[in-house]
Amino acid sequence: MQKTINNLKENAKYPISILILMGIILSVVAFALPTIANAANDIEVIAGFEYTAATATERKDSYPATSGENRANAQIEFTYAAGVVAQIGRTQADREPLNVPNTPIDGWFQGNDFSAGNAAGWIITLDTTGYASDLKFTASQSSSNQGPAQFALAYRIGDTGGWTDISGATATITTAGDTMGKTFDNAELPDAMGDKAVVQLKVYITSAVNRSGGALAADNGNTSINNILITGEAIPQPEPFYNLPATYETMITHLGSYSTGFTNADGGVAEIVVYNKDNQKMYLVNGADQSLDIVSLAGITAGAVNTFTLDKRIDVESLGEDNGFSGGDITSVSVNTRLKVLAISVQKGDYDDDYAENGYIVFLDYDGGYIAHYEAGCQPDMLGFSPDNNYVMTADEGERRNFSDNSVDPEGSVTIIDLSEIDSHNDLKTIADDKITTVGFHAFDTEEKRAELVANGVLLKVGTAPSVDLEPEYIAFSEDSKTAYVSLQEANAIATFDIETKTFTSIKGLGFKDHSLTGNELDLRSDADIKIANEPVFGVYMPDGLATVNIGGVQYVL
Q: Whole-model pTM?
Protein backbone atom coordinates (compact mmCIF):
# COMPACT_ATOMS: atom_id res chain seq x y z
CA MET A 1 0.00 0.00 0.00
CA GLN A 2 1.21 3.53 -0.64
CA LYS A 3 -0.19 6.73 0.73
CA THR A 4 1.47 10.14 0.43
CA ILE A 5 0.87 12.73 3.13
CA ASN A 6 1.21 16.31 1.84
CA ASN A 7 -0.63 18.85 3.99
CA LEU A 8 1.18 19.00 7.32
CA LYS A 9 1.97 22.72 7.34
CA GLU A 10 -0.95 23.80 9.51
CA ASN A 11 0.79 22.74 12.70
CA ALA A 12 4.46 22.44 11.81
CA LYS A 13 6.71 25.32 10.89
CA TYR A 14 9.18 22.91 9.32
CA PRO A 15 6.97 19.89 8.48
CA ILE A 16 8.49 16.52 7.73
CA SER A 17 6.74 14.82 4.83
CA ILE A 18 5.87 11.17 5.41
CA LEU A 19 5.15 8.32 3.02
CA ILE A 20 3.97 4.93 4.32
CA LEU A 21 4.63 1.78 2.33
CA MET A 22 3.28 -1.68 3.16
CA GLY A 23 5.00 -4.79 1.88
CA ILE A 24 2.69 -7.16 0.03
CA ILE A 25 3.16 -9.71 2.78
CA LEU A 26 1.60 -7.58 5.50
CA SER A 27 -2.06 -6.64 5.76
CA VAL A 28 -3.44 -3.21 6.61
CA VAL A 29 -6.27 -2.26 8.82
CA ALA A 30 -6.98 1.39 9.48
CA PHE A 31 -4.28 3.71 10.77
CA ALA A 32 -4.17 7.38 11.54
CA LEU A 33 -1.87 9.42 9.33
CA PRO A 34 1.60 9.78 10.85
CA THR A 35 2.63 13.28 11.75
CA ILE A 36 5.78 14.97 12.93
CA ALA A 37 6.07 17.93 15.21
CA ASN A 38 8.69 20.52 15.91
CA ALA A 39 9.40 23.77 17.65
CA ALA A 40 12.29 26.17 17.10
CA ASN A 41 14.38 24.56 19.82
CA ASP A 42 11.96 22.15 21.48
CA ILE A 43 9.78 19.10 21.00
CA GLU A 44 6.11 19.77 20.39
CA VAL A 45 3.42 17.14 19.88
CA ILE A 46 0.88 17.80 17.17
CA ALA A 47 -2.60 16.30 17.02
CA GLY A 48 -2.72 13.43 14.56
CA PHE A 49 -4.85 12.83 11.50
CA GLU A 50 -7.73 10.35 11.36
CA TYR A 51 -9.13 8.66 8.30
CA THR A 52 -12.67 9.88 7.73
CA ALA A 53 -15.56 7.70 6.67
CA ALA A 54 -15.00 5.64 3.56
CA THR A 55 -16.07 7.12 0.24
CA ALA A 56 -17.28 5.46 -2.90
CA THR A 57 -13.78 5.46 -4.35
CA GLU A 58 -12.33 3.36 -1.54
CA ARG A 59 -11.26 -0.18 -2.43
CA LYS A 60 -9.96 -3.02 -0.28
CA ASP A 61 -8.45 -5.98 -2.15
CA SER A 62 -9.04 -9.20 -0.25
CA TYR A 63 -6.15 -11.61 0.15
CA PRO A 64 -6.72 -15.25 -0.82
CA ALA A 65 -7.63 -17.54 2.05
CA THR A 66 -5.73 -20.55 0.73
CA SER A 67 -2.18 -20.93 1.97
CA GLY A 68 -0.64 -21.96 -1.33
CA GLU A 69 -1.85 -19.05 -3.47
CA ASN A 70 0.53 -16.41 -4.78
CA ARG A 71 -0.35 -12.93 -3.51
CA ALA A 72 2.38 -11.06 -5.36
CA ASN A 73 -0.03 -8.48 -6.80
CA ALA A 74 -2.27 -8.07 -3.77
CA GLN A 75 -2.48 -4.56 -2.37
CA ILE A 76 -4.72 -2.24 -0.43
CA GLU A 77 -5.59 1.24 -1.65
CA PHE A 78 -7.65 3.91 0.07
CA THR A 79 -9.02 7.27 -0.99
CA TYR A 80 -10.14 9.56 1.84
CA ALA A 81 -11.94 12.81 2.35
CA ALA A 82 -9.93 15.63 3.92
CA GLY A 83 -10.07 16.23 7.64
CA VAL A 84 -7.88 16.86 10.66
CA VAL A 85 -9.16 15.69 14.04
CA ALA A 86 -7.85 14.46 17.36
CA GLN A 87 -5.75 11.32 17.34
CA ILE A 88 -7.92 8.21 17.93
CA GLY A 89 -7.77 4.45 17.45
CA ARG A 90 -9.25 2.18 14.80
CA THR A 91 -13.00 1.82 15.34
CA GLN A 92 -14.81 1.88 11.98
CA ALA A 93 -16.38 -1.36 10.81
CA ASP A 94 -15.07 -0.85 7.30
CA ARG A 95 -11.51 -1.00 8.64
CA GLU A 96 -11.66 -4.59 9.88
CA PRO A 97 -8.40 -6.54 9.60
CA LEU A 98 -7.72 -8.37 6.38
CA ASN A 99 -6.47 -11.94 6.53
CA VAL A 100 -2.95 -12.67 5.35
CA PRO A 101 -1.96 -16.35 4.89
CA ASN A 102 1.47 -17.57 5.93
CA THR A 103 2.90 -19.02 2.73
CA PRO A 104 6.41 -19.95 1.55
CA ILE A 105 5.99 -17.44 -1.27
CA ASP A 106 5.26 -14.28 0.64
CA GLY A 107 4.09 -14.93 4.18
CA TRP A 108 5.13 -13.25 7.40
CA PHE A 109 8.70 -14.46 6.95
CA GLN A 110 10.74 -16.82 4.78
CA GLY A 111 13.06 -19.58 5.95
CA ASN A 112 13.01 -18.35 9.56
CA ASP A 113 14.84 -15.23 8.35
CA PHE A 114 13.75 -12.37 10.60
CA SER A 115 16.35 -9.83 9.48
CA ALA A 116 15.10 -6.35 8.70
CA GLY A 117 15.74 -6.82 5.01
CA ASN A 118 13.67 -10.00 4.66
CA ALA A 119 10.94 -10.03 7.32
CA ALA A 120 7.56 -8.47 6.68
CA GLY A 121 7.12 -4.95 7.97
CA TRP A 122 5.76 -1.44 7.64
CA ILE A 123 7.99 1.03 5.80
CA ILE A 124 7.63 4.73 6.59
CA THR A 125 9.43 7.17 4.31
CA LEU A 126 10.37 10.52 5.88
CA ASP A 127 11.76 13.86 4.81
CA THR A 128 13.57 15.01 7.97
CA THR A 129 15.09 18.14 6.47
CA GLY A 130 15.34 20.81 9.17
CA TYR A 131 15.41 18.35 12.07
CA ALA A 132 18.86 17.87 13.56
CA SER A 133 18.32 15.36 16.34
CA ASP A 134 16.10 13.83 19.04
CA LEU A 135 13.80 12.08 16.59
CA LYS A 136 11.31 9.80 18.36
CA PHE A 137 8.74 7.29 17.14
CA THR A 138 5.39 6.35 18.73
CA ALA A 139 2.77 3.92 17.40
CA SER A 140 -0.07 1.63 18.48
CA GLN A 141 -0.52 -1.91 17.15
CA SER A 142 -2.79 -4.93 17.43
CA SER A 143 -2.79 -8.47 16.04
CA SER A 144 -5.21 -11.36 16.00
CA ASN A 145 -4.36 -14.31 18.22
CA GLN A 146 -2.64 -15.96 15.29
CA GLY A 147 -0.97 -12.77 14.04
CA PRO A 148 2.62 -11.67 14.68
CA ALA A 149 3.52 -10.39 18.14
CA GLN A 150 7.11 -9.19 18.19
CA PHE A 151 8.45 -6.20 16.22
CA ALA A 152 11.57 -4.05 16.00
CA LEU A 153 12.73 -0.89 14.22
CA ALA A 154 15.37 -0.47 11.53
CA TYR A 155 16.31 2.43 9.26
CA ARG A 156 18.18 3.32 6.11
CA ILE A 157 19.21 6.55 4.43
CA GLY A 158 17.43 6.87 1.10
CA ASP A 159 14.90 4.35 -0.20
CA THR A 160 17.26 1.60 -1.33
CA GLY A 161 20.01 -0.47 0.20
CA GLY A 162 20.40 -2.38 3.43
CA TRP A 163 18.75 -1.74 6.78
CA THR A 164 20.39 -0.88 10.11
CA ASP A 165 18.71 -2.08 13.30
CA ILE A 166 17.94 0.56 15.94
CA SER A 167 19.36 -0.62 19.24
CA GLY A 168 16.77 -1.27 21.94
CA ALA A 169 13.80 -0.42 19.70
CA THR A 170 11.65 -3.55 20.14
CA ALA A 171 8.00 -4.11 21.06
CA THR A 172 5.49 -6.88 21.75
CA ILE A 173 1.83 -6.66 20.76
CA THR A 174 -0.55 -7.57 23.57
CA THR A 175 -3.90 -6.39 22.20
CA ALA A 176 -6.20 -7.83 19.54
CA GLY A 177 -8.99 -6.69 17.26
CA ASP A 178 -10.08 -3.09 17.32
CA THR A 179 -8.29 -2.42 20.60
CA MET A 180 -5.00 -0.74 19.78
CA GLY A 181 -2.16 -0.89 22.31
CA LYS A 182 0.84 1.43 22.36
CA THR A 183 3.90 -0.57 21.36
CA PHE A 184 6.54 2.06 20.64
CA ASP A 185 6.42 5.00 23.03
CA ASN A 186 8.87 7.77 22.05
CA ALA A 187 11.38 5.21 20.83
CA GLU A 188 14.62 7.08 20.16
CA LEU A 189 15.72 7.17 16.53
CA PRO A 190 19.39 7.68 15.62
CA ASP A 191 20.69 11.16 14.84
CA ALA A 192 21.86 9.79 11.48
CA MET A 193 18.21 9.92 10.37
CA GLY A 194 18.06 13.67 10.98
CA ASP A 195 18.17 16.39 8.32
CA LYS A 196 17.80 14.05 5.33
CA ALA A 197 15.63 14.50 2.26
CA VAL A 198 14.79 10.79 2.17
CA VAL A 199 15.12 8.37 5.08
CA GLN A 200 13.10 5.22 5.79
CA LEU A 201 11.96 3.59 9.03
CA LYS A 202 10.84 -0.06 9.06
CA VAL A 203 8.62 -1.68 11.72
CA TYR A 204 9.30 -5.37 11.09
CA ILE A 205 8.43 -8.80 12.52
CA THR A 206 11.24 -10.37 14.55
CA SER A 207 10.03 -13.88 15.48
CA ALA A 208 7.71 -16.75 14.57
CA VAL A 209 5.73 -16.33 17.79
CA ASN A 210 2.10 -15.28 17.42
CA ARG A 211 0.20 -13.03 19.79
CA SER A 212 -1.19 -15.97 21.81
CA GLY A 213 2.30 -17.43 22.31
CA GLY A 214 2.06 -20.18 19.72
CA ALA A 215 3.74 -20.60 16.38
CA LEU A 216 3.14 -17.92 13.74
CA ALA A 217 1.77 -20.23 11.07
CA ALA A 218 -1.96 -19.56 10.73
CA ASP A 219 -3.20 -18.73 7.27
CA ASN A 220 -5.52 -16.00 8.45
CA GLY A 221 -3.42 -14.14 11.00
CA ASN A 222 -3.51 -10.39 10.73
CA THR A 223 -1.90 -7.30 12.23
CA SER A 224 -2.43 -3.55 12.17
CA ILE A 225 -0.71 -0.30 13.08
CA ASN A 226 -2.24 3.03 14.03
CA ASN A 227 -1.64 6.38 15.72
CA ILE A 228 1.82 6.84 14.24
CA LEU A 229 3.54 9.92 15.62
CA ILE A 230 7.09 11.06 14.92
CA THR A 231 8.62 14.06 16.66
CA GLY A 232 11.95 15.81 16.22
CA GLU A 233 13.97 18.77 17.37
CA ALA A 234 14.28 21.43 14.71
CA ILE A 235 17.62 22.93 13.78
CA PRO A 236 17.72 26.33 15.55
CA GLN A 237 17.06 29.20 13.18
CA PRO A 238 19.17 32.33 13.72
CA GLU A 239 17.40 35.51 14.65
CA PRO A 240 17.11 37.91 11.69
CA PHE A 241 19.86 40.52 11.64
CA TYR A 242 17.29 43.16 10.76
CA ASN A 243 13.53 43.07 11.08
CA LEU A 244 12.13 44.45 7.86
CA PRO A 245 9.17 46.80 8.16
CA ALA A 246 5.78 45.67 6.93
CA THR A 247 6.21 47.91 3.85
CA TYR A 248 9.55 46.40 2.81
CA GLU A 249 8.08 45.00 -0.41
CA THR A 250 7.50 48.55 -1.63
CA MET A 251 10.91 49.86 -0.52
CA ILE A 252 12.78 48.19 -3.38
CA THR A 253 11.08 47.98 -6.76
CA HIS A 254 12.30 46.37 -9.97
CA LEU A 255 12.27 49.18 -12.52
CA GLY A 256 14.04 47.43 -15.35
CA SER A 257 17.18 45.69 -16.52
CA TYR A 258 19.96 46.16 -19.05
CA SER A 259 21.84 43.40 -20.86
CA THR A 260 25.25 43.83 -22.44
CA GLY A 261 24.41 41.12 -24.96
CA PHE A 262 27.33 38.99 -23.79
CA THR A 263 27.45 35.85 -21.65
CA ASN A 264 30.33 34.03 -20.02
CA ALA A 265 30.14 30.87 -17.89
CA ASP A 266 32.94 32.22 -15.70
CA GLY A 267 31.19 35.55 -15.08
CA GLY A 268 32.94 38.91 -15.31
CA VAL A 269 30.60 40.36 -17.95
CA ALA A 270 28.96 43.29 -16.13
CA GLU A 271 31.04 43.86 -13.02
CA ILE A 272 31.02 47.52 -11.94
CA VAL A 273 28.11 49.96 -12.31
CA VAL A 274 27.98 53.63 -11.25
CA TYR A 275 25.19 56.17 -11.64
CA ASN A 276 25.71 59.79 -12.65
CA LYS A 277 23.02 62.03 -11.19
CA ASP A 278 24.09 64.91 -13.45
CA ASN A 279 22.92 63.23 -16.66
CA GLN A 280 20.85 60.29 -15.36
CA LYS A 281 23.13 57.77 -17.00
CA MET A 282 24.83 54.67 -15.71
CA TYR A 283 28.33 53.59 -16.65
CA LEU A 284 29.04 49.88 -16.74
CA VAL A 285 32.33 47.98 -17.03
CA ASN A 286 31.76 45.39 -19.76
CA GLY A 287 34.39 42.77 -18.99
CA ALA A 288 33.40 40.53 -21.87
CA ASP A 289 34.08 43.22 -24.48
CA GLN A 290 36.67 45.30 -22.54
CA SER A 291 34.52 48.34 -23.00
CA LEU A 292 32.61 50.99 -21.07
CA ASP A 293 28.85 50.91 -21.69
CA ILE A 294 26.94 54.18 -21.27
CA VAL A 295 23.22 53.61 -20.67
CA SER A 296 20.54 56.26 -20.18
CA LEU A 297 18.18 55.87 -17.23
CA ALA A 298 16.20 59.03 -17.97
CA GLY A 299 12.44 58.81 -18.32
CA ILE A 300 11.96 55.86 -15.97
CA THR A 301 8.27 55.12 -15.42
CA ALA A 302 7.31 54.13 -11.89
CA GLY A 303 5.20 51.00 -11.52
CA ALA A 304 6.39 49.57 -14.83
CA VAL A 305 9.28 47.44 -16.03
CA ASN A 306 11.41 49.78 -18.12
CA THR A 307 13.71 48.88 -21.00
CA PHE A 308 17.17 50.45 -20.88
CA THR A 309 19.15 50.78 -24.09
CA LEU A 310 22.80 51.39 -24.85
CA ASP A 311 23.72 54.99 -25.69
CA LYS A 312 27.37 54.40 -26.45
CA ARG A 313 30.05 51.73 -26.02
CA ILE A 314 33.65 52.89 -25.52
CA ASP A 315 36.20 50.33 -26.70
CA VAL A 316 39.20 50.59 -24.36
CA GLU A 317 41.75 49.07 -26.73
CA SER A 318 40.85 51.53 -29.49
CA LEU A 319 40.79 54.39 -26.99
CA GLY A 320 44.35 53.50 -25.99
CA GLU A 321 45.60 53.17 -29.54
CA ASP A 322 44.25 56.65 -30.34
CA ASN A 323 45.67 58.29 -27.21
CA GLY A 324 49.03 56.69 -26.46
CA PHE A 325 48.42 53.89 -23.95
CA SER A 326 48.15 50.12 -24.29
CA GLY A 327 44.60 49.34 -23.19
CA GLY A 328 43.91 45.91 -21.74
CA ASP A 329 41.38 44.97 -19.07
CA ILE A 330 39.06 47.75 -17.91
CA THR A 331 38.40 47.00 -14.25
CA SER A 332 36.53 49.93 -12.67
CA VAL A 333 34.75 53.24 -13.25
CA SER A 334 33.83 56.17 -11.00
CA VAL A 335 32.15 59.59 -11.39
CA ASN A 336 33.41 62.98 -10.15
CA THR A 337 30.56 65.48 -10.25
CA ARG A 338 32.76 68.40 -9.15
CA LEU A 339 34.95 68.11 -12.24
CA LYS A 340 32.23 66.60 -14.47
CA VAL A 341 34.46 63.66 -15.39
CA LEU A 342 34.69 59.90 -15.30
CA ALA A 343 37.77 57.92 -14.34
CA ILE A 344 38.42 54.33 -15.40
CA SER A 345 41.18 51.96 -14.31
CA VAL A 346 42.81 50.05 -17.13
CA GLN A 347 45.40 47.30 -16.94
CA LYS A 348 48.14 47.27 -19.53
CA GLY A 349 48.08 45.26 -22.73
CA ASP A 350 47.80 41.49 -22.82
CA TYR A 351 46.34 39.85 -19.72
CA ASP A 352 49.02 37.13 -19.50
CA ASP A 353 52.07 38.66 -21.18
CA ASP A 354 51.87 42.16 -19.64
CA TYR A 355 50.54 41.27 -16.20
CA ALA A 356 53.64 42.61 -14.39
CA GLU A 357 53.45 46.02 -16.08
CA ASN A 358 51.91 49.18 -14.63
CA GLY A 359 48.40 50.16 -15.67
CA TYR A 360 46.59 53.46 -16.10
CA ILE A 361 44.08 55.90 -14.67
CA VAL A 362 42.15 57.36 -17.63
CA PHE A 363 39.97 60.47 -17.40
CA LEU A 364 36.94 60.80 -19.70
CA ASP A 365 34.14 63.31 -20.10
CA TYR A 366 30.54 62.29 -19.38
CA ASP A 367 30.12 61.11 -22.99
CA GLY A 368 33.20 58.88 -22.85
CA GLY A 369 35.48 61.31 -24.66
CA TYR A 370 39.18 61.04 -23.82
CA ILE A 371 40.75 63.78 -21.63
CA ALA A 372 44.01 62.36 -20.21
CA HIS A 373 45.69 59.28 -18.75
CA TYR A 374 48.35 58.70 -16.06
CA GLU A 375 50.37 55.72 -14.94
CA ALA A 376 49.17 53.75 -11.93
CA GLY A 377 50.70 50.73 -10.19
CA CYS A 378 50.63 47.14 -11.43
CA GLN A 379 47.17 45.81 -12.29
CA PRO A 380 44.87 48.61 -11.05
CA ASP A 381 41.82 46.56 -10.04
CA MET A 382 39.51 49.16 -8.52
CA LEU A 383 39.21 52.93 -8.70
CA GLY A 384 37.29 55.54 -6.71
CA PHE A 385 37.03 59.25 -5.93
CA SER A 386 37.11 60.52 -2.35
CA PRO A 387 33.81 61.97 -1.04
CA ASP A 388 35.10 65.55 -1.51
CA ASN A 389 36.12 64.69 -5.12
CA ASN A 390 39.68 65.94 -4.45
CA TYR A 391 41.44 62.58 -4.80
CA VAL A 392 41.25 59.54 -7.01
CA MET A 393 42.80 56.25 -5.93
CA THR A 394 43.36 52.82 -7.42
CA ALA A 395 43.93 49.50 -5.69
CA ASP A 396 46.82 48.02 -7.68
CA GLU A 397 46.53 44.27 -7.08
CA GLY A 398 49.87 43.09 -8.46
CA GLU A 399 48.95 39.40 -8.47
CA ARG A 400 51.04 36.68 -10.01
CA ARG A 401 49.46 35.19 -13.14
CA ASN A 402 52.31 33.18 -14.59
CA PHE A 403 54.15 30.50 -12.63
CA SER A 404 56.84 29.60 -15.16
CA ASP A 405 60.50 29.47 -14.07
CA ASN A 406 61.24 33.06 -15.07
CA SER A 407 57.93 34.61 -13.97
CA VAL A 408 57.67 37.35 -11.36
CA ASP A 409 55.29 38.17 -8.53
CA PRO A 410 54.58 41.92 -8.96
CA GLU A 411 54.28 44.25 -6.00
CA GLY A 412 50.87 45.38 -4.83
CA SER A 413 50.27 49.08 -4.20
CA VAL A 414 47.81 51.96 -4.28
CA THR A 415 48.02 54.97 -6.58
CA ILE A 416 46.63 58.34 -5.49
CA ILE A 417 46.25 61.49 -7.59
CA ASP A 418 45.70 64.82 -5.83
CA LEU A 419 42.97 66.74 -7.68
CA SER A 420 42.45 69.47 -5.09
CA GLU A 421 43.94 72.15 -7.38
CA ILE A 422 42.26 70.85 -10.54
CA ASP A 423 39.23 72.84 -11.67
CA SER A 424 38.65 71.93 -15.34
CA HIS A 425 39.12 69.32 -18.00
CA ASN A 426 42.11 71.27 -19.30
CA ASP A 427 43.72 71.14 -15.86
CA LEU A 428 43.38 67.33 -15.93
CA LYS A 429 45.66 67.22 -18.96
CA THR A 430 48.60 68.72 -17.11
CA ILE A 431 48.67 67.17 -13.63
CA ALA A 432 52.14 67.58 -12.11
CA ASP A 433 54.21 64.47 -11.33
CA ASP A 434 54.37 65.34 -7.63
CA LYS A 435 50.57 65.08 -7.45
CA ILE A 436 50.67 61.41 -8.53
CA THR A 437 51.96 58.90 -5.98
CA THR A 438 52.13 55.11 -5.99
CA VAL A 439 52.63 53.65 -2.52
CA GLY A 440 53.63 50.07 -1.81
CA PHE A 441 54.25 48.07 1.37
CA HIS A 442 58.06 48.23 1.68
CA ALA A 443 57.72 49.83 5.14
CA PHE A 444 56.51 46.44 6.39
CA ASP A 445 59.36 44.35 4.92
CA THR A 446 61.67 44.52 7.94
CA GLU A 447 61.86 41.39 10.06
CA GLU A 448 60.27 43.18 12.99
CA LYS A 449 57.38 44.69 11.01
CA ARG A 450 56.70 41.43 9.19
CA ALA A 451 56.55 39.57 12.51
CA GLU A 452 54.07 42.15 13.81
CA LEU A 453 51.81 41.53 10.81
CA VAL A 454 51.86 37.78 11.34
CA ALA A 455 51.16 38.19 15.06
CA ASN A 456 48.19 40.38 14.12
CA GLY A 457 46.69 37.63 11.97
CA VAL A 458 47.79 38.91 8.55
CA LEU A 459 48.26 35.93 6.24
CA LEU A 460 51.61 35.96 4.40
CA LYS A 461 53.37 33.34 2.31
CA VAL A 462 56.39 31.85 4.04
CA GLY A 463 59.60 33.58 3.00
CA THR A 464 57.79 36.31 1.02
CA ALA A 465 58.13 40.04 1.69
CA PRO A 466 54.87 41.90 2.45
CA SER A 467 55.64 44.35 -0.38
CA VAL A 468 55.41 41.41 -2.81
CA ASP A 469 52.75 39.32 -1.11
CA LEU A 470 50.09 41.94 -0.28
CA GLU A 471 47.55 42.50 -3.06
CA PRO A 472 45.10 45.46 -2.71
CA GLU A 473 41.62 44.60 -3.87
CA TYR A 474 39.28 47.49 -3.05
CA ILE A 475 39.23 50.98 -1.48
CA ALA A 476 36.66 52.82 0.63
CA PHE A 477 37.03 56.36 1.99
CA SER A 478 36.18 57.87 5.34
CA GLU A 479 33.43 60.47 5.38
CA ASP A 480 35.94 63.32 5.86
CA SER A 481 38.11 62.16 2.92
CA LYS A 482 41.18 61.92 5.18
CA THR A 483 41.50 58.13 5.33
CA ALA A 484 41.26 55.29 2.84
CA TYR A 485 40.66 51.68 3.82
CA VAL A 486 42.18 49.06 1.53
CA SER A 487 41.10 45.41 1.48
CA LEU A 488 43.90 42.84 1.20
CA GLN A 489 41.81 39.82 0.31
CA GLU A 490 44.35 37.00 0.20
CA ALA A 491 46.02 38.29 3.39
CA ASN A 492 42.65 38.41 5.22
CA ALA A 493 43.39 41.98 6.29
CA ILE A 494 42.46 45.67 5.99
CA ALA A 495 45.10 48.36 5.53
CA THR A 496 44.54 51.95 6.69
CA PHE A 497 45.98 54.70 4.46
CA ASP A 498 46.49 58.32 5.53
CA ILE A 499 45.64 60.49 2.51
CA GLU A 500 47.47 63.63 3.66
CA THR A 501 50.79 61.88 4.34
CA LYS A 502 50.25 59.23 1.66
CA THR A 503 51.37 56.41 3.95
CA PHE A 504 49.93 53.20 5.31
CA THR A 505 49.45 53.61 9.04
CA SER A 506 48.36 50.07 9.88
CA ILE A 507 47.50 46.63 8.52
CA LYS A 508 45.08 44.60 10.64
CA GLY A 509 44.19 40.94 10.22
CA LEU A 510 40.50 40.07 10.46
CA GLY A 511 41.03 36.84 12.37
CA PHE A 512 39.19 33.60 11.83
CA LYS A 513 35.64 32.33 12.19
CA ASP A 514 35.19 29.30 14.46
CA HIS A 515 32.62 27.12 12.69
CA SER A 516 32.33 24.81 15.69
CA LEU A 517 30.39 27.50 17.58
CA THR A 518 26.60 27.86 17.55
CA GLY A 519 25.58 30.45 15.00
CA ASN A 520 28.59 29.77 12.74
CA GLU A 521 27.19 26.70 10.94
CA LEU A 522 27.98 26.05 7.27
CA ASP A 523 27.62 23.39 4.60
CA LEU A 524 31.16 22.09 4.21
CA ARG A 525 30.48 18.78 2.46
CA SER A 526 30.79 18.44 -1.30
CA ASP A 527 27.80 16.17 -1.82
CA ALA A 528 24.18 16.33 -2.90
CA ASP A 529 22.87 17.00 0.61
CA ILE A 530 22.21 20.44 2.07
CA LYS A 531 23.49 20.19 5.62
CA ILE A 532 24.10 23.40 7.54
CA ALA A 533 26.02 22.25 10.61
CA ASN A 534 28.87 23.08 12.94
CA GLU A 535 32.26 21.80 11.80
CA PRO A 536 35.64 21.66 13.59
CA VAL A 537 37.24 24.16 11.21
CA PHE A 538 38.13 27.86 11.09
CA GLY A 539 37.05 30.09 8.22
CA VAL A 540 38.91 33.03 6.68
CA TYR A 541 36.96 36.25 5.96
CA MET A 542 39.06 37.34 2.91
CA PRO A 543 37.57 40.86 2.43
CA ASP A 544 36.77 41.93 -1.11
CA GLY A 545 34.47 44.94 -1.64
CA LEU A 546 34.32 47.60 1.09
CA ALA A 547 32.06 50.47 2.10
CA THR A 548 32.08 52.94 4.98
CA VAL A 549 29.44 54.58 7.12
CA ASN A 550 29.68 57.17 9.90
CA ILE A 551 27.16 56.67 12.70
CA GLY A 552 27.17 59.02 15.66
CA GLY A 553 30.64 60.26 14.80
CA VAL A 554 32.08 56.74 14.64
CA GLN A 555 33.54 55.58 11.34
CA TYR A 556 32.64 52.00 10.41
CA VAL A 557 34.07 49.87 7.60
CA LEU A 558 31.64 47.39 6.04
A: 0.58
